[in-house]
Amino acid sequence: MRYAHEVDKVRAAEQALMARLPDGTLMARAAAGLAAVCARLLPRVYGARVVLLVGGGANGGDTLYAGALLARRGARVVALRAGTSVHEGGAAALRAAGGRLLPPDATGEIDTADLVIDGLTGIGGSGGLREPHATLARRASAAPATLVACDVPSGVDASTGAVAGTAVHADVTVTFGTHKPGLIIDPGAAHCGVVELVDIGLGADLPDPDVVAARPDDVRPPEPGPESDKYRRGVVGVIAGSGTFPGAAVLAAGAAVRGGAGMVRFASDAHAVELVRQRWPETVTRVVEPGPDVLAEIGRVQAWVVGPGLGGGERAEALVGAVLASDVPVLVDADGLNAVSRSDALRRALLCRDVPTVLTPHAGELARLLRVDRDAIEARRLEHARRAAVELGATVLLKGSTTLVAELDRPVRVNPTGTAWLATAGTGDVLSGLVGALLAGGMAALEAAAAGAYLHGLAARLASGREGREAPISAEDVLRAIPDAFRTLD
Ligand SMILES: NC(=O)C1=CN([C@@H]2O[C@H](COP(=O)(O)OP(=O)(O)OC[C@H]3O[C@@H](n4cnc5c(N)ncnc54)[C@H](O)[C@@H]3O)[C@@H](O)[C@H]2O)[C@@H](O)CC1
Ligand SMILES: Nc1ncnc2c1ncn2[C@@H]1O[C@H](COP(=O)(O)OP(=O)(O)O)[C@@H](O)[C@H]1O
Ligand SMILES: [K+]
């Protein structure tokens, strides 16, 4: 797992470590790591033009010491001072190494630089960048120089990834001690470029992480063994589709088949059932009307998926209600979530469940569930995913440019796979069927949701092609690439 810690935890760990080390040791380690990355990025350090953007805090201090190290190797280093004071030791070191400090209006330096280091704000930054910081951030982001952010791109909230106004768009972010959530969650993540972690020795002082991102060997979907049969591998029941949206049913049922379910039971109205039967003859289908015995009519399953393409109205509410009353894990998606948003009874049913429930909203669906603006959710994804997990009593997978999975008292999972090409109709239906298969296979809710998102994002990347040569993909292409995604796991 890749670990990320919020600012208060980073500060506490730094305090604990600093108490055991001579003054200035941590800043020296951070600066050395930062300078080493910058030196690697430059074709030649000697003679390179390096500009430092320096704020009033320790982030500016790191940057000044890193600039001094580059100046000692022959770089021509100037620092633009934002704010009234800068780190004194860092400024003295830069001067002693032959660098210069200039006022913030010397912005012409930025346009001719080979490399700019952003040391305006780090984990101490809060709110939108003030002036002259914002102007410097904009100018550096637009300049041809390689832009390296010290610890965090200035203007990005390190704990959450929120960006209020202007923020640096870095090519590389050199972060210290541990990742910060804001570096791996959008919109902040989109400002980081490549993130390099520099070890400053915090390891033993860091508590449990707030946010984690899987590496390939962390994703372990269930595998059949010699004793497996279709029932033991897990039967998933999919209730999806309607006269208006039958395609969602075909995609969700297909993803459940490809996701490793021992068997898929599919139930809906006659039209959706006919389409699914034609496309996925391996499913066991049943035409159902909502009623008290609807689940018994469909048959026994180890997990339910309800919602894709169900449409609105009483039918959807009745089917979601039936599924929530069951005693097996349930995934609610799409129109199933909209039904919960409309119905207090369904919301109560959700809270009463004592078996796992996974909800897979996009920002619009979550906005309706939490009764907040969609924009607020996209701006502060981490906060809203956590809040939804608490208020709805479920494992919440929030989809979008960064997919998060939140569960009460557990580190939030950030999905590291995926591609913006996934933003196309029907890919969410594929995700719900895939996660449903993993739930039926016995994975815990958080693991199933995180593994499903990982495989789904990987399938999309495999379908769209290698980086720099991607092509548009359909939901169907993602579905077809699911087996390849499984194959690429370690
Ligand atoms: N604490 C430590 O032991 C270590 C800290 N390190 C560095 O220290 C940084 C944190 O330093 P600080 O706590 O001094 O905080 P920062 O340097 O991140 O930010 C504080 C400064 O930014 C200004 N500021 C905050 N928000 C602003 C805004 N929106 N617009 C304009 N100015 C704003 C403040 O007035 C203050 O001058 C880390 O990111 C890292 O770079 C590293 O040296 C490693 C060790
Ligand atoms: N900008 C983006 N970058 C990466 N993935 C995205 C982006 N936008 C959407 N996605 C992904 O695409 C899928 C879309 O799902 P959803 O919104 O439910 O679509 P639908 O309802 O049409 O199936 C989700 O897996 C989501 O995480
Ligand atoms: K910075």
From TrEMBL:
Its EC number is 4.2.1.136, 5.1.99.6. SUPFAM superfamilies: Ribokinase-like, YjeF N-terminal domain-like. Its cofactor is Mg(2+); K(+). AMP binds at residues 399-403, 428. It comes from the Bacteria. GO terms for biological process: metabolite repair; nicotinamide nucleotide metabolic process. In the C-terminal section; belongs to the NnrD/CARKD family. In the N-terminal section; belongs to the NnrE/AIBP family. Catalyzes the epimerization of the S- and R-forms of NAD(P)HX, a damaged form of NAD(P)H that is a result of enzymatic or heat-dependent hydration. This is a prerequisite for the S-specific NAD(P)H-hydrate dehydratase to allow the repair of both epimers of NAD(P)HX. Catalyzes the dehydration of the S-form of NAD(P)HX at the expense of ADP, which is converted to AMP. Together with NAD(P)HX epimerase, which catalyzes the epimerization of the S- and R-forms, the enzyme allows the repair of both epimers of NAD(P)HX, a damaged form of NAD(P)H that is a result of enzymatic or heat-dependent hydration. HAMAP family: NADHX_dehydratase, NADHX_epimerase. Homotetramer. This is Bifunctional NAD(P)H-hydrate repair enzyme. It comes from Actinomadura rubteroloni.
